[in-house]
Amino acid sequence: MPKRPRSRVRRALLTLTALGVAGASVVLGPAAYVKLTARPNTFTVSSVPKAPVALVLGAQIYPDGTPSPYLRGRLDTAKRLYDAGKVRAILVSGDNGDDHYNEPDGMRRYLIRRGVPAKQVVADYAGFDTYDSCVRAKRIFGVNELIVVTQGYHLPRAIATCRLVGIEARGVGDYTTNFGPVWRYGQIRELGANVKMVADVMTRRTPTLGRYETSVDEALGK
Fold first, then answer.
1. Residue 19 has pLDDT above 70, yes or no
2. CATH number at residue 130
3. Of 9, 62, 43, whose CA–CA distance to 147 is shortest?
4. In the predicted model, is pLDDT for residue 125 greater than 90?
5. Does the pLDDT of residue 94 top 70, yes or no?
6. Domain range holding 107?
7. Rounded Cα–Cα distance for residues 25 and 115 (Å)
8. What are φ and ψ of residue 220, in 5° steps?
9. Which of 2, 24, 64, 142 shows a CA-CA span of 20 to 30 A to 30?
10. End-to-end Cα spacing for the chain
11. Cα–Cα distance list, 178 to 58, 69, 70, 175 (Å)
């Protein structure tokens, strides 16, 4: 009789251990894949090979249309890529989910005001998350090769996502905001976001789509 409670405790511990291992695999497996995929495709502005397009992923924009520091860092990096002749067009992809919030137009204005020709900056108004932006870059704008630009902690997932949906993607990260709790929160959040990315890719989730846009083709002189 005294052995039964011990047996139940042992079984419970084994079950909890198995669940813990399974949970860790679910989180750490995608994280490892993302890291391995991104490592050989991560560069600086000076070292990245040329590509036709830079894809700038959206982030918070203020009510007056001013980019937040995180978004400004991404846009400044894209401007440097353009000035260095690494890309010929910039695709800014972000959230325009309601009439009072518009990331792509704010991003586009910022780049144009800093000297990028208006025709070379194309706006994607339905880039509601990283997966959506990558899929739409390929299926709506016809981009097959690009340099993706975002914060350094987000860059591995952005590169992996683009490559998994069929784009030859390399990446350049911004580190000007590499401090404080927001950056640390972003690093932790990526663990869950990696799992979502795998689910999106495996289920071939369809983002908001529409007719083919020729804006990138025109920017590239096609």
1. no
2. 3.40.50.620
3. 43
4. yes
5. yes
6. 3-219
7. 47
8. -90, 0
9. 142
10. 82
11. 17, 11, 10, 5
